[in-house]
Amino acid sequence: MSLFRIASNSRNVLIATALILPSTVFAEGLEDWWQGKGVSGDWLGARPVIEENGLKFSGEWKGTFYGFAGGGRPNQKAGYFDEELKFGVEVDFAALTKVEAFEGLKAFSEVRWRDGLNPNLRAGAFGTFQPSDYQGGKQWRLLNFGATYTTPELFGIKKFASVTGGWLQPQKFFIEQPLSKLFINNAVKSSKGLGGNIPFSSSFSSWGGVLTLKPVEWHYARAGFFMSYPQATSTANHGLAFEGYGPDASQNGLYFLGETGFTPKIGSSKLPGKYAFGAYSFGQTNSGFQGGDFSNKYGFYWQADQMIFRESATKHTDSKQVVSSDGKKSVSPTETEKLSDQGLNFFSLVAYAPQVNNVLPFYFHTGLVYRGLIPTRDEDLTMFSFAFGSYSAENIDALQEDGITNQPNYSSVIEFGHRVQINKWSYVQPYIQYIMRPNGTTSIANSTVLGFQAGVTF
């Protein structure tokens, strides 16, 4: 009888083990995936190995809902949704070939898909101030491909110079302002005032080259030359307009951007900042509002970003082995501090262009972003922005002379949002936009847009 019980108990243990082990392994795997860096996981352990050997793949998806609580064009629908999907690859030739001479040499490429109904059908805003920045260059689009070489050391300075060439997006290199990219409205996120006058969006790609010099840690200078051409951001060309303007290549021109800036770390908290000045010239034949022909459009911009408050540093205690003068070994605890990335950040931009041939000669935006404002939600972001643009007085005069009495004077937008960081690779971001004088006049009512954005990285 006892032998039967022993056999029965052993069988039960085996059954329990067979049931518990797979569920435990599955739970651990699920936890590793949830705490990982991307929704696609580590590819059964292959991804870290691939990256160590010089190939890095990236991807992200974002979808945004726009609900109109009032204003805009009342004869249009009240709800809209659009989305964006991007994939990229980067090749580190030194890691790939194990050849030290290739240190600093990388190649890259990125493609994108955009789709969705345009919420500006309801808002009726001038392009710069439209509620979404996902409406340009829709469907599949080649964004860039090329190579970058960064000098490991030159003149005794690490990473002194960097040169990039290929099919490039100027927006990737100039007015780099990561905090502004957190917002939904096109003005702050993408156009930044320049896009009201010249192509300056993620949909503009062109042949070009960029040189960056960084003589010290806190200062840089950058210059870029690109091909300019008409209808560059058209959805129809899918980012494949390698010849420039297909119908007439003689209309291709030269697009120059230059920027210099300082990136100090202020005080004992080492608050990071960025203060930059830039100028551009977009070579395309155009006409002034009061007549006259011009060979280009040019303008200037000033950027000031600064972390203005950092929460207290976190303290860590580590054990360190100490050897006394008589050779005796002992373990001594050492306390170190790690600077927190939680706190309040400020960003701003001013752009100016001549009124004679630019629709939006003055533009300004500013904003605040607080990381970890809500206790226990250390990675969440609470954000506010304001953007304002005034339209050309010469354009107003020309419209008056043509008998148009309601001319565009200014547009502005306020946006509040809060990004809930679900884990390292996913978030949801409710927001509200209030767009004032959407098309610059009083003919379209101010719009209130309520919605949310969701995103994941792969």
Defining traits:
458 residues; mainly beta; two-stranded antiparallel sheet; 6 helices
What does the model show?
The strands form four sheets. The chain has a 16-stranded antiparallel barrel with strand order 1-2-3-4-7-8-9-10-12-15-18-19-20-21-22-23. The chain is globular. The model has no long low-confidence stretch (mean pLDDT 92). It is mostly beta strands and 458 residues long. The protein starts with a helix and ends with a strand. It has helices at residues 2-34, 46-52, 93-97, 120-123, 186-191, 393-401, and strands at residues 55-72, 79-92, 105-116, 139-150, 153-154, 157-158, 161-168, 206-216, 219-228, 253-262, 265-266, 271-282, 286-287, 293-294, 297-310, 314-323, 329-338, 343-352, 362-371, 381-390, 410-423, 426-436, 445-457.
Provide a concise account of the structure shown.
The chain has 458 residues and is mostly beta strands.
Give the topology.
Layout: H1 2-34, H2 46-52, E1 55-72, E2 79-92, H3 93-97, E3 105-116, H4 120-123, E4 139-150, E5 153-154, E6 157-158, E7 161-168, H5 186-191, E8 206-216, E9 219-228, E10 253-262, E11 265-266, E12 271-282, E13 286-287, E14 293-294, E15 297-310, E16 314-323, E17 329-338, E18 343-352, E19 362-371, E20 381-390, H6 393-401, E21 410-423, E22 426-436, E23 445-457
Antiparallel strand pairs: 1-2, 1-23, 2-3, 3-4, 4-7, 5-6, 7-8, 8-9, 9-10, 10-12, 11-12, 12-15, 13-14, 15-18, 16-17, 18-19, 19-20, 20-21, 21-22, 22-23
